Amino acid sequence: MNSPASRSRWMSKTAVNGFLLLAVVYMLFPLVWLVTAATKDTGGLLAGNAFSFEDFNLGENLSNLASYGDGIYFRWYLNSLFYAGGGAIVCSLICVAAGYAFDKYEFRGKEKLFGLVLMGVLVPTTALALPMYLLASKTGLVNTYWSVLIPVLVNPFGVYLARVFSTGYIPNEALEAARIDGAGELRVFWSIGLRMVMPGFVTVFLFQFTAIWNNFFLPLVMLSDRKLFPLSLGLYSWNTNTHGEPSFYPLVVTGSLLAVIPLIVAFVSLQRHWKAGLTAGSVK
């Protein structure tokens, strides 16, 4: 006969697992709706039977998506890949280099400067959109790729996170050994520091990639040329037309489904780096 303690543990585990199952269902529900709704035509979506696979229309929706506006959707797709991919890589390098410098070097006013960086974490990015627009207007960058790309190269939280990773992943002994062997500071960072802190680099990259991919307000402020739009702004412009022209509904839903794919690929392909013990055996 089970003791009261074992029954209590069993009930606790059941309650926790049940809660986790409900949380998973809650998080996956919008994605399931998106997958099934992308197979419907305008009539099927407006009829409210999006969760059934009757009248499978995904092929035609994809064809209409590719042909509408001379393929403008995939132009937006490439723009988003450029903004998010290029911006996240460069931003991650800047953050890791800054975090490494804050951790491994001593210079005057270091902690005060780092405190200023932490204050930047408290400022919402939407509050900076108007000042950045005014600066871009004075420099002639409004309605260009640079007006969206340059602001996303800075991430105060990424600098903080990189400093934490640098403290935990890069032993000072490894850097000193490289300096004794004659390596310069840039060589030490690129060949040793960056490689050891790669889990931190990947973490900052994923955070920034997701933020840029979902970025909406900054492109809305900076861009007026439809050919420069990212996916978020392009799909929004289509969605504003759905009330007057319901044929946009399948385009918006199918386009939203395709827009999720890069985020899933990025997280699935890079998650192994979070668990990699890259510092094992680094100190000889």
UniProtKB/TrEMBL annotation:
Gene3D superfamilies on file: MetI-like
Similarity annotation: Belongs to the binding-protein-dependent transport system permease family.
PANTHER family associated with the record: ABC TRANSPORTER PERMEASE PROTEIN MG189-RELATED, ABC TRANSPORTER PERMEASE PROTEIN MG189-RELATED-RELATED
Annotated GO biological process: transmembrane transport
Keywords: Cell membrane, Membrane, Transmembrane, Transmembrane helix, Transport
Membrane spanning stretches: 81-102, 114-136, 148-171, 192-213, 248-270
InterPro entries: MetI-like, MetI-like_sf
Organism from which the protein derives: Streptomyces atratus
Subcellular location: Cell membrane
Primary site of residence: membrane
Gene Ontology cellular component terms for the protein in this record: plasma membrane
Domain ABC transmembrane type-1, chain residue ranges per copy: 77-269
Protein name, as recorded: Sugar ABC transporter permease
Pfam (any one): BPD_transp_1
Membrane topology: Multi-pass membrane protein
The keyword DNA damage is assigned to this record: no
